[in-house]
Amino acid sequence: MTPRDPVLEAASRFRDAVNLSEVQPELMESEQNWGQLCSAMDAIQDTQSAIDAWRGGAATDDLGERYLRVYGVLQALFLQQDALKHAAEGVGEEWEPTEDLRAIRIVRNQAIGHPTKQGSQDASFGIVQWSMTTDSFELSSFSHRRTGGEFSRQIDLPQLADAQVRAVSIELNRLAALLERRAAPSSEGSAR
């Protein structure tokens, strides 16, 4: 028997908690909030399917395919974090990304989000083409300050994806448990 995907399992638990009869009416009071919550739940699961497809893909010698896979998984990780934040908002909870998740966002922004200029930073970034596989790449920084310089670091995509799976699963389970506790007093009272 194949183990279930931790994010999809936690997302299913969260969706079940959102749909508890003691919780759902309150969440649906605002049509905008409910729409955001539903969209976020779908996006979390959809992006996890994309991440899982990336994990299951075969290595390729085609440069364009490698770029598409690297760009795709980094974007899926980024979108999933946004969806998680919006899901938390949808149930009235605050959420801040962990240090690992913030690091993933930085890699995404530097490598594919805004590589040619990082906002107010005085640097540009680029994927070193010859180093790129479907699972890793070297990310170079080009400082535009006279005192600065270039640096590069190796990016291990499976390591980033694993860190995200852990953090997203924990947060979805936390949110589900909060909703389940909200529902518990009502269900205990009706059982008497």
Account of the 3D structure:
The chain is mainly α and 192 residues long. It has one domain. 63% of the residues lie in helices and 11% in strands. It contains 6 helices and 3 strands, in the order αααααβββα. It has a 3-stranded antiparallel beta sheet with strand order 1-2-3. A hairpin with a 7-residue loop joins strand 1 (123-128) and strand 2 (136-143). Helix 1 (6-18) packs parallel to helix 6 and helix 4 (63-90) runs parallel beside helix 6. The N and C termini lie far apart (40 Å). 26% of the residues are buried.
| Mean of all residue-level pLDDT scores | 90
Shape label: elongated
In total, the number of domains comes to 1
Largest sheet: 3 strands, antiparallel
Beta content: 5-15%
Low-confidence stretches: 186-192
Total number of beta strands: 3
Distance between the termini: 40 Å
What spatial order of strands do you see in the largest sheet?
Answer: 1-2-3
**Into which percent range does the helicity of residues fall?**
55-70%
